[in-house]
Task: structure prediction
Amino acid sequence: MSTEELWQDFLKVAQEELGSRVVDTWFKALQVASWNSRDRLLVLRAPNLFVKKWVSSHYHDFLQAQFARLFGEETVNVRIEDNLVPAAPLGTIAQKQQVRESLMVVQPARALAEAVYPSVLSQKRRLTSKSPKEAAQAGEIKPELFRDELVDRFRFDTFVDGPSNTLAFSAAQAVAENVGRLYNPLFIYGGSGLGKTHLLHAIGNYLRTTGSRARIVYQSADHFVNEFVAAIRKNKVAEFEQGYRLIDVLLMDDVQFISKKEQTQEAFFRVFNLLHQAGKQIVFTADSLPCDIVGLAERVRSRLEGGLIADIQVPSLETKIAILQKKAELQNYVLEDDVAYFVASAPCSSVRELEGLLIRVVAFAALMKQPLTVGLAGKALSQIKDVRKECVTGLPGIARFVAKQFNYTVRDLRSARRNKDLVIARHAAMYLMKQRTAFSLRDIGLFFERKDHTTVIHAIHNIEDRIKKDPSFAGQMRQIEEGFISYDLRSGEQASIATASFVSMSADT
Result:
């Protein structure tokens, strides 16, 4: 089998394990450069340094494990090179000298930009020496266009990155450090309250605090619509569009609001072209992919899709905990781990909702003049519709319940120990978590400090097989689930369940 055929097999496996988004964004950007069977060295070529660093830091172990299996080797070393360094082993002095000279001539930052957008460099654009406010006062930019609405607290160092948002976070940082030269435009999409606006402000704040003279405009798409309507009313459409010519960075929030507005989209299209052709940086956010925005003109959609598209998803349990502790830290108080787990397990679809729950429990503790414990947090959230019920079904609650049933601790369940009784308790907890919560297999695996979610898949299949084959075991699992329904997380009380024979059963290893 050729290396190209093996690569296609790898892409299929990667899509099943990691999802099509990861494959389309990262792995399909790579190419197989060479395979050295003697040294068991596979060299992949990335289109630029950013992709090389990202794949190396996030998927290197996955690549090595999968290719060792595909090549039938015990181990395979995977090396990722970018376009600046030839992927094949350098054999001659002339080759080495050629590479050395090329690296001396092309500086890393320039080389990275050239690899992605070579046309931008040829423009040799220079930012104006005037600040945005000075330009507005001089009449070069309309005062209503330049509105310094950047929120100071929305910075990169206050944003908690995790598996659900790490691509968007890293891309936003890269854009801020390489304005107009990298990933232009950048399109960030995701549900409401997940951090899209935070990243827009973080880009602007980074430029403002690092002394950049770039003229930055942050605005929502509905503001763009209102300004355009006002320009039509005053017969100043040309002035409206030309006002954008002198800005350097456009940060536009909720771009989906221009959909189904034909004239506004025409103006937006012209403004986009003005900025993009001049090498100015453009960053958009929306609640969905460009292809999913109904009523968007095809040429506008193609412009939005012309750069890097990064998504932000609902944060995992671990990320929620980190967010809660970060926000608590910014308010100068300490949030204990068990309380953070409890609040993070509450049903919420956004970071904004999560922050609201935190504010509620902290305020409740302050009003009651009591320390913030899990019990107090339970009381604070119990009055919110369905929150207490869902909190009970959170991962920490299930872990505590199952651990007590089997005379173990949560630490035991999360440990690496593999004695038979403990393994079956751990598998039962994983199975119950999947049945009773909406958390992903990855979230459950992270809770048990397992890097690979296939451990969770094995546990669930193990329990399901036993239920099918053993009626007695199936009855005991029903008792576990029924007992959990009556479990009161706030007091730690739980229904009596006969598990003696259940505990004694052997576990698959």
Q: What stands out?
A: Residues 85-133, 139-146, 385-393, 488-509 have pLDDT under 50 and may be disordered.
